[in-house]
Structure prediction request, 382 residues.
Amino acid sequence: MHTQGLLAQVAEQLGRPVPEELAAALRQVPRHLFLPETVGVRDGQGGYRPINRSTAPEEWMAAAYADQTLVTQFIDDLPSSSASMPSIVLRMLQLSQVTTPEGTRQQPFRAMELGTGTGFNAALLCALLGQGAVTTVELDPVLAEQGEQNLTAAGYAPTLVQADAAQGHSGSAPYAWVLATFSVDRVPPAWIVQTAPGGRIVTPWTSAWCCYGTLALTVSPSGTAQGHFHDFASFMPMRRPGSGQEIENSASAQTAPFEEAKSATALSPWAVAGGDLDAEFRLGLTVPGAFFSWDTTGEHAPVRLRVEDTTSTSWATVDYDGTHTCEFTVTQAGPRHLWNEIADAYASWENNDRLAVGRYGLTVHADGAHPPWLDSPDHPLA
Ligand SMILES: C[S@@+](CC[C@H](N)C(=O)[O-])C[C@H]1O[C@@H](n2cnc3c(N)ncnc32)[C@H](O)[C@@H]1O
Prediction:
């Protein structure tokens, strides 16, 4: 009953009927069995609103069978685990090709999911492939235990490993399908080594500039992995135990002893950082290490865009004076001229048909190189 409603919402989101094999898996795995007492839903103001099963049982159940992300854990007020949006889970399963017809399926017949979370996606994989075929890896020991309890309660017992997914899990390798449910800015070498030739790796993507896109790679016998980006999903970043931060930033940037250069730009800071995902994705792909934040305190300017670098102490600021929308004041310092790099990359995107995320692809070489390309590997992106 509940699942029918969810299937209808997912079909609407996908713009087509849910393929029967996936619909059957969704019917078989009751999502509410994987949710904690309290889940967080977006409140429409940039935050989250808790829904508690005891105090609002109907609303909680409705949330479980709505096509929406439900946050299940917060660390330092930021979401650190969630039950992903069902339509996105299904799109990723389709991209991985786990649902290709029986006779044409990849050998070996094994899948590894990275980021167990609630266990819901692992249960779907069990329903599709059989639980003997599924390994799932979760870093957080509390979530791993909870995920295992959820899976057991729903009648599934995949191999659940509590470990850092950056290392994959060699114990059950090689896999025909590797699916990550957190975003990465590089594909860890272990994932490629543990994927059989012809196998698929599907992972949400992030760069320092923009967390968006899903990468679907096919692994070749020579050990490279290659494939296109797809224009959906923004997932929380992979946790990196020991690094202290997912993406290091240059907190000391503003005090670095570099000479500051002032200039003016006609490029609006909102054009590069105001939510145009196609533009921001391109900037993230071609200006490595650059990230931004908005300062609306009015301390320096009515609105300031601050650009920093994960790899050096370079920084740039772009100020809107509250009046002029055609000219903004730029200050930059450090070995990289970050604003110039951003402006050049944006001009290149703007002058080349404002290409969409799905036009880009990536090759991951055994030596760790990640060259991006446009449409095909024959057209490398400068
Ligand atoms: C979006 S949630 C996963 C949703 C999950 N697949 C489900 O069906 O509920 C992302 C998960 O990845 C886990 N994670 C993040 N970094 C990780 C890492 N380095 N190794 C293993 N798990 C990680 C998080 O703890 C979190 O539970």
Remarks:
- The CA atoms of residues 203 and 284 lie 16 Å apart.
- The pocket of S-adenosylmethionine is lined by residues 81-84, 114-115, 117-118, 120-121, 137-140, 143, 164-166, 181-182, 235-236, 238-239 (CB under 6 Å).
- The domain at 2-230 is CATH 3.40.50.150 (Rossmann fold).
